[in-house]
Each structure stands twice: as structure tokens, then as C-alpha cells.
Design brief:
Chain lengths: 527, 436
């Protein structure tokens, strides 16, 4: 297992030389105030066999998890995904090429693996031809930067994942290993990547801030001495190139270097930070009813064009990850009607995938939900920039199953909001050692696009803040006892219908027996 | 309205057209100036589908297109890049409305011997009905179907057997439900071989316009017929249905229907069958609607209430609309029977305004007009229960209140009860007409 640990300090954070001391076998960190990323790379033979079997059936498997509480995403880790578990999965090319789409067994394995690793309760069933995954639009199959299949589930915590890691990778008495795995519980986001070309599995965690007393840890060299343990203590530096991120600080390989080496390097970056006041908040104004309107509120600072190169064109976007309980009307949203769009401060629906059936109730929807990439309008130059700019996206609830209270709660993760800007030809994003792709939304843009992520900032007074909105959905009230029982509805309906039928038949009987005026006439004649 | 108004066909049809033209223009204005559109969502579905067929593709590529491809073909002009042509379909639907109204008036005069002024007056219940004009100018295709159905009534009453068969076949292809009218036509006396003199008799029938003599005329026969026709035909006998005209009508209708379906199936394959027909059987849309079954459907779909009630739900509806009503009433009044069938059909299932087009045939002899007090009570109950339902629906959809039970449940059952009451009045009125 190779490890790479990166501490990124804010420019105003204190650093003293004795906070990091390197011995031939160990780097000791003491009280360091920094964001931290740790990336562990496993070669295929280090992977537990049951996991390996599933991975062998994957061409690519990328998992992204973000916590529900807001956190800072500092450069070079500025990219974000909506809270919850995201899975991007591409089956082996042969399966795609031979038109087998995907052998049922593979998905089955991916689904059951996800359940075993993350949560038995997630909605990931794969009976035969139905799939829990959705297929995102693929812009180019040759240079596919999006996976063939996509999945999302709400997942507030990683307890199950940590337990799984501890069971599969740690000896039961290895306290260090157990604690190391448990540290993932406090991570703000976790990435897992596997592809069949490198046959390597990487797991990375990101912590946006240090524990209260700062990071204090002993980073040991690899026990076998064969795998590299690399540590960086870095900070971002000002750069004159808008496409680039510049990092400076100390680097060292534990067990190899005798001292940490000063470094300064820069690279073109896909994801860039925005100032702290470039925020957004998401709400569903009451009453939500069955047609809630997602409102994204942007303060003035968020509307300023990002510091992209002067000739770049930029547009503000949002990427919605909607569970199956809630959906957009793709015909309504893909309209070109300027009145509709400007009344919502939208420019256009750029991409949609997943469950967009306009009528189906939730219980017949097999897949997890849908993704929507929407370009947002910004105030015209001539307009006085408003104090707050509200973008609204009309959405609709599916019918949910009946409940005792007459209501059910639907949880909608906050979307990500970002500027997308064109970058110069020839910009090679891939050389960035911290590059992050397979986020769902970034693959919908060209490979040379730069993203400037806005910071989610809940406005509500309620603590703790979560980047998940809960909507109360009215459903059929069904009590175990009392008046609102299924039986009452059943018997009531059938009785009323039958009474109606009998009444109409009785009237028809009377009509059939009524001679009408003709016989009267006849009688009158014969008389 | 002054009676001189009804004397002038120009004024009647002119104002019907004017009403629709102004609504159409108003709709264009609202669409251009408000994010809330006048145009019906369905019209966007039709025109999207028309765009697909204009590109040689299947109209079923458009989600929720649940109609025959004929409709998409008909609306291909909406895809032409000529200013104003996007509204071609609405103009077509609105004109169909007016044609239906004209056919109503014509039929009231020709077969029922109403004075043309009176006929136009009753036709105005349809022609100048703001609800009707609103529906078609928003781009709903119902007007087209109504014109076909009134055309069917005219063709039958005027003994144009082949024409009637073709119209019925086409109407059923367009929307399934008009198949119920087939039974009414067959049971009715229009195609009896013995009544060939009826038309002549009708034409010479009295043209006085009192309700009483109208109700005699509505039967479609003069008095001299009655003596010739002393032996009543047994409507349940084979011979009755084997009358040449009935056979010809049945065969033409079936041939038209099959020819259309086979050609559409050849052109568009399984999606045509799925979306035009099977969808209505297998649909999984349990959103609330005016149906008295709505709550039960929600319950059974989500909870799996045992019992085949979903398929049984069709039984009362079909029993009444297909069998009992035509057998009981079709020989008294064809359009009256069709009204009762349609009313029963929508009462026992879902709510549509399909029956409006038959009102001008029924109202002249209706006890709702004869007794204004009863008429107003019915109207109040019909509007009241509907308003109650709409209010509960609003509470659910927009205020997010869980109003499925008891609100929507009771409201839809009350609305059902009122409709059943109206159906009873309708049947009694029709029962008072002479058997032919």
C-alpha cells in the first residue's frame, strides 16, 4: 500500500519547523492546523479477494462520498459533489461492444458490494432487467469521461465502510490500523477509484480542517520498505497564470529522505477556488405541496465572473442530484421560451439523465433518481446587481406510499453550483497531482474546462446545518386502527359505486317499462 | 339573447368563430407575455410528435404521446417555419368545434324537424359555450373527436350507412371510448329495414317547436309509421341485427378501424399499440383525478390490496355504457342514448367533458329545462361537488396538506353521487320518449 499524505495550510496559519520532524523511519506531525488529504493505493494483490472478484468485472469504478454537513473545499481540493454516495461504473469494454450492455451478474455484484460496504439499507436492487443505475449522457464514447452507469444514495455516515475496512485490512489486534481506518469517520469526502488498466485501487479521504488541537500523528515508513510513503506540507501561492494553481512548502518520502525538501511547483488545474463570500444556499419555500420549487439564492459576490483568463467564456451552472421521490419535468425545463426561463433565472437545461417519468409513483420507479445540469442566468450588466439573486427550478413530487400520519419525508441533497469556463487549447489538466474527475458533472463538459466552485452556506438558524433539504410530502393517510383504514376506503368505494349502479339500473328498468307517449296515443286512437 | 340573433346563421356562426378567434389571439398574447401559458401541455406534446413525424421518425419518441399517429400527421403544418403556423392545430380544433355545432343544428332541423332558429339556439349551447371554445383554442384535440361523433349521429339519422361506419371506425381509432356508440347505433331503429320510410316521414313532420311536439319528433318518426309497424321488432333477435344496414355499418366500422390500426402498426410497430391502446390498460399513473376509484387505486397500487378490483372497476362502466343503456334507450333517441352512455362512461370512471356535445340534442326535452328549479339544483350540486373536489385537490397539490382522506375521497364520491343522480334524470327523460 502506497500512501500520500498532503497537508494544505492556509496562508495565515502558523507553522514552526518543529511541528514536522523526520527520522529515518517516521515523520512526526504536531498540532498542525491544515486541511489534509490522504491517498492510499493498493495493488491488485493487496485487495481482499471478494472485492477483487467484483472489481475484475469493472472497467472503471469510481465512488465519491461527501458528508451532509457543510465543509470548506480548499485548493487544490476545491471540487465538490452533492452530499451522499455517488457511484460511477463502467463494465468491461467487451460487454459494451458485444451489445450485452452489462451482464446482470456484474450489476448484481456491484449492488451487493455497495450494500455490504456502505449500507445494507440503500436502494440498490438489480433484479434481471431492471437496474438501479442510470445511464448518464456520454458526450464521446472514444474519450468517455463519464462512466456508463451512475448511482446515488443518501449516506449520512461511513460507519459501515470503516467497519468493512477494519475487517478486511486490519489484523484484529493492530490498534494502529484500526484507528487509521476509523479516522475516515471524520473525513469530509472520500474517493475510491479503480480502473482495469492500472489494476490499482486508490482510496482517498479529505479533511477540510484539523481536529481542535491540530493534526498530531506519526507517519511511519512502509513496514515492508517496498511501498512509498510520501508527505507534503504545502500552501497555495499566488500565481500569475489564471489556469494554474501554485503550491509551495515541504515534501518528503518517509524512510528514504533524511529531511523534508522545500518545493514550489505549479500546474494547470481543472478545479479552482473562489473567494469565501462566493456562496449559495438552497431552500424549498413553503408550502411545497406536490410541486416544490428549488430556490438557489446567490449573494452578489457569487455573481462576479470568476478570475478566469480574459478571453475565456464562463457560465454559471448547477448540477442537481435528485432522488426518485422528486423529479423535474424535462419538457418544461428544456423549453426555449425566454419568458419561462427568465422568470426562473435559468438559461437552459443542458443535460438530464435518469428517472424522468412524469406520472409513475415512487414505488414503481426502479432506479435511484435523476441528474440535471442546468445553466443559470446572471443579472444583465444594465441591471442593478441585486442584493440577492434567486434562481428557481420547478420540481414535482412522486406519489409516495401511504403512511400513518398522512405525510412522508423526502430528502433532497443540495446541488453543486459552479462556474464553468473555457480554458486555452493545449491545457493539460491531467498533470495536476491533485486532479479530480468522475464527479458526474465535470464529464458533461469538454476536457479543457475550468470549474470555479461556489461554497454551500446554509442560511437557516437550525443547527446542525445540513446540505440536505427535507420536504414533507402528503400521502394517503392509512391507520392500523381507527377510521382511515384501507378497508374503509375499499368498502366505502365499492358500496357507493354499487349503490350508484343499482340506482341507474333501477332508473333504466323504469324507462324500459315506460311505454312512452306512443302507446298513449294509440290508446287514444282506439278509444 | 334576442331571437333575431338565432335567425341569422351568419351571426350565430360568426360569433362562434369570433369567440374562438379572440381566445386564440388572447392565447398568443398570454403565451408571449406571461410565463404561465395559455396553450395546453398536450398541444406541445402533439406538436413535438408532429415534429418527429415530419422528420420521418416515430411520434412515440415523444413521451406521453398517447394518440394515433394520424393526429401527429394532421399537425405537421405546425412544424412549417411559417409565422403563425404553430397555431394551425388550434385553428383546426376550433374549426372542428364550429363544424360540430353546425352539424348539431343541421341534424336538429333535418331529422328532428326543429325550426332552424330553435335548432341554432340549442346548438349555441355548444357553439357559444366558453368552456368548449377554451378547450379547443388551448390546443386540445377533443373538438376533432366531437365533430366526428356528431357527424356519426347525422350520418346514422340520415341513413348514410357507409359514412356512419367509416366515422365510427375513425373515431374509435382516434380515442377508444366511442366504441360504445356502436351498440347504440345497432340497437337503434335507424338501420331497421322496415323503417325506410321514416326519413321521408320525418321531413314532413311537424315543424312546430313546442317542447311537446318536439319530443314526438325526436323519436324520428311520424304517426303514419306507427300503424305500419304494428309488429314490434324484437331487438334481442338475431334477425334484428342481421338487417342489411346493420351488417354494412358493422363491417364498414370494423374495416375502417382495422385498416387504420394495421397500417399504423406496420408503420410504427409495437410503440403504436403500447401508447395508443395498451397504455390505458397498463397505466401506472395513480395521481388523483375525478374518478371515484382514485383513492382505492392509490391504496391498491401502493399497498397491494388483494382482489382483482382494478379489472372489476370496468364492469359497472361497461355494463351500463355498452349493454344496458343502449338496449333500453337506443330506440327512443340516438343522441340521447349516446349522451347517457358517455355520461355513464365518465361518471363510473374518469372525468371528461366528452358529453357536452350531446347536450343540444337532449336539453330541448329535458326536465332540467322544463323545471328550472330542478335544473338549478342539479347545476348547483354539480358545480358544488366539483368545487369541493378542486379545493381539496388544491390543498393537496399546492398547500401540501394530506387531503387524500377524507377530503378528496369524500369529494370524489359526492361528485360521483351527483353524476349518478343526473344520469338518473337523463334516463327518466329519455324513457319518456316514444319507442320506435
Amino acid at each position: 500500500m502506497r500512501r500520500r499524505i498532503t497537508f494544505v495550510q492556509a496562508s495565515d496559519a502558523p507553522f514552526a519547523a518543529d511541528q514536522a520532524s523526520l527520522t529515518p523511519s517516521t515523520l512526526s506531525i504536531r498540532g498542525l492546523d491544515a486541511a489534509r488529504e490522504e491517498r492510499a493505493t493498493f495493488s491488485f494483490d493487496e485487495i481482499p479477494s471478494e472485492l477483487g472478484q467484483v472489481l475484475q468485472q469493472c472497467h472503471q469504478l469510481h465512488i465519491r462520498w461527501a458528508r451532509e454537513e457543510p465543509y470548506d473545499a480548499v485548493a487544490p481540493f476545491s471540487s465538490r459533489v452533492s452530499p451522499g454516495l455517488h457511484v460511477f461504473f463502467t463494465p468491461p469494454e467487451e460487454a459494451v461492444r458485444t451489445g450485452m450492455s452489462i451482464p446482470g451478474g456484474v450489476r448484481e455484484s456491484v449492488c451487493s458490494l455497495l450494500k455490504r460496504v456502505f449500507d445494507e439499507g440503500i436502494k440498490c436492487e438489480s433484479p434481471q432487467h431492471k437496474t438501479s443505475f442510470i445511464t448518464p449522457p456520454i458526450l464521446s464514447t472514444r474519450f468517455a469521461s463519464t462512466a456508463a452507469f451512475q448511482y446515488h444514495s443518501s449516506l449520512p455516515a461511513l460507519e459501515n465502510f470503516v467497519t468493512y475496512l477494519q475487517h478486511t485490512t486490519c489484523a484484529s489486534a493492530d490498534e494502529g490500523c484500526l484507528q487509521h481506518a476509523a479516522s475516515i469517520l471524520s473525513a469530509d469526502s472520500v474517493d475510491i477509484n479503480y480502473d482495469s488498466i492500472s489494476h490499482a485501487l486508490t482510496v482517498s479521504g479529505y479533511w477540510s480542517h484539523a481536529p481542535r488541537s491540530g493534526w498530531t500523528e506519526e507517519i511511519h515508513k512502509h513496514a515492508g520498505g517496498t511501498d512509498q510513503v510520501e508527505v507534503g506540507l504545502l500552501g497555495t501561492e499566488k500565481t500569475t497564470e489564471p489556469e494554474e494553481v501554485k503550491m509551495g512548502g515541504l515534501l518528503g518520502v518517509v524512510g528514504k529522505d533524511v529531511e523534508l525538501k522545500p518545493t514550489l511547483f505549479s500546474f494547470p488545474a481543472r478545479h479552482h477556488p473562489l473567494p469565501d463570500d462566493a456562496t449559495y444556499s438552497v431552500s424549498f419555500p413553503a408550502p411545497t405541496g406536490l410541486h416544490p420549487t428549488m430556490t438557489i439564492s446567490l449573494p452578489r459576490a457569487s455573481l462576479e465572473a470568476p478570475p478566469a483568463p480574459p478571453d475565456a467564456t464562463c457560465a454559471l451552472h448547477t448540477y442537481l442530484t435528485l432522488p426518485s421521490t422528486i423529479f423535474g419535468d424535462k419538457y418544461q425545463l428544456s423549453t426555449a421560451d425566454p419568458l419561462f426561463l427568465s422568470s426562473h433565472n435559468l438559461v437552459a437545461l443542458r443535460a438530464v439523465s435518469g428517472e424522468t417519468d412524469l406520472e409513475a409513483p415512487d414505488w414503481v420507479v426502479p432506479r435511484w433518481g435523476s441528474n440535471w445540469l442546468v445553466e443559470l442566468a446572471t443579472p444583465q450588466q444594465s441591471e442593478q446587481a441585486p442584493h440577492e439573486w434567486n434562481v428557481t427550478i420547478p420540481l414535482h413530487m412522486r406519489y409516495l406510499e401511504p403512511s400513518e400520519s398522512g405525510y412522508r419525508s423526502a430528502a433532497v441533497p443540495w446541488p453543486v453550483v459552479f462556474w464553468a469556463c473555457t480554458a486555452e487549447d493545449g491545457t493539460k489538466m491531467g498533470i495536476n497531482p491533485f486532479d479530480r474527475v468522475n464527479l458526474g458533472w465535470e464529464g458533461l463538459f469538454g476536457t479543457r474546462t475550468m470549474f470555479y466552485q461556489l461554497h454551500p452556506a446554509p442560511k437557516s438558524q437550525e443547527e446542525p446545518h445540513r446540505l440536505v433539504e427535507k420536504i414533507d410530502v402528503p400521502v394517503l393517510k392509512l391507520e392500523g386502527e381507527g377510521i382511515f383504514q384501507g378497508k374503509v376506503i375499499e368498502v366505502g368505494t365499492v358500496t357507493v359505486i354499487l349503490l350508484g349502479l343499482v340506482w341507474v339500473l333501477w332508473k333504466l328498468g323504469l324507462a324500459a317499462r315506460s311505454p312512452g307517449p306512443r302507446k298513449d296515443n294509440k290508446r287514444a286512437k282506439t278509444e | 339573447m334576442p331571437s333575431s340573433f338565432f335567425q341569422s346563421p351568419t351571426q350565430v356562426y360568426g360569433s362562434a368563430i369570433l369567440l374562438r378567434a379572440s381566445l386564440l389571439l388572447y392565447g398568443l398574447w398570454q403565451d408571449a407575455h406571461s410565463p404561465v401559458k395559455y396553450t395546453d401541455i398536450d398541444y406541445l406534446v402533439f406538436t413535438d410528435a408532429a415534429r418527429y413525424v415530419s422528420l420521418g421518425q416515430s411520434p412515440y419518441l415523444r413521451d406521453t404521446y398517447r394518440y394515433t399517429p394520424l393526429l401527429a400527421w394532421l399537425l405537421v403544418p405546425t412544424t412549417w417555419n411559417i409565422p403563425g403556423f404553430f397555431s394551425f392545430g388550434k385553428v383546426l380544433f376550433a374549426l372542428s368545434d364550429v363544424v360540430a355545432g353546425w352539424l348539431i343544428a343541421r341534424s336538429l332541423v333535418k331529422t328532428y324537424g326543429l325550426h332552424p332558429d330553435r335548432a341554432r339556439m340549442w346548438a349555441c349551447v355548444w357553439l357559444l359555450n366558453p368552456m368548449v371554445a377554451n378547450i379547443s383554442t388551448r390546443g386540445s384535440s377533443e373538438g376533432l373527436l366531437c365533430a366526428l361523433v356528431v357527424g356519426l349521429v347525422c350520418a346514422v339519422l340520415e341513413r348514410k350507412v357507409t359514412c356512419a361506419g367509416v366515422l365510427l371506425g375513425l373515431a374509435v381509432h382516434l380515442k377508444i371510448y366511442p366504441f360504445v356508440y356502436g351498440g347504440a347505433v345497432l340497437v337503434g331503429s335507424a338501420f331497421s329495414s322496415s323503417s325506410s320510410s321514416t326519413l321521408k316521414a320525418n321531413r314532413t313532420a311537424t315543424t312546430t317547436t313546442t317542447t311537446r311536439s318536439y319530443s314526438k319528433a325526436v323519436g324520428g318518426k311520424g304517426e303514419e309509421d306507427e300503424d305500419n309497424n304494428e309488429e314490434e321488432e324484437n331487438i334481442l333477435s338475431f334477425a334484428y341485427f342481421l338487417a342489411p344496414n346493420r351488417l354494412l355499418f358493422t363491417l364498414t366500422a370494423l374495416a375502417t378501424f382495422s385498416a387504420l390500426n394495421i397500417s399504423m402498426y406496420i408503420l410504427y410497430d409495437a410503440p403504436f399499440l403500447q401508447h395508443t391502446y395498451l397504455h390505458h390498460v397498463t397505466r401506472i399513473d395513480h395521481r388523483h383525478n375525478f374518478s371515484p376509484y382514485a383513492t382505492l387505486l392509490y391504496l391498491s397500487a401502493a399497498d397491494g390490496v388483494k382482489g382483482a378490483f382494478e379489472s372489476l372497476a370496468f364492469v359497472p362502466q361497461l355494463l351500463l355504457a355498452v349493454v344496458v343503456i343502449p338496449l333500453t334507450l337506443a330506440r327512443r333517441s340516438l343522441p340521447g342514448t349516446m349522451l347517457a352512455q358517455t355520461f355513464a362512461f365518465v361518471t363510473f370512471n374518469k372525468y371528461f367533458l366528452w358529453y357536452l356535445v350531446f347536450l343540444p340534442f337532449y336539453l330541448p326535452q329535458s326536465s332540467l329545462i322544463r323545471s328550472p328549479r330542478l335544473g338549478l339544483a342539479v347545476l348547483a350540486a354539480w358545480v358544488g361537488t366539483q368545487a369541493l373536489w378542486l379545493q381539496q385537490g388544491y390543498n393537496l397539490e399546492f398547500l401540501g396538506q394530506s387531503s387524500f382522506v377524507p377530503g378528496l375521497f369524500l369529494a370524489s364520491l359526492s361528485f360521483f353521487a351527483v353524476n349518478v343522480w343526473i344520469l338518473g334524470i337523463l334516463i327518466s327523460d329519455l324513457g319518456a320518449l316514444p319507442v320506435l
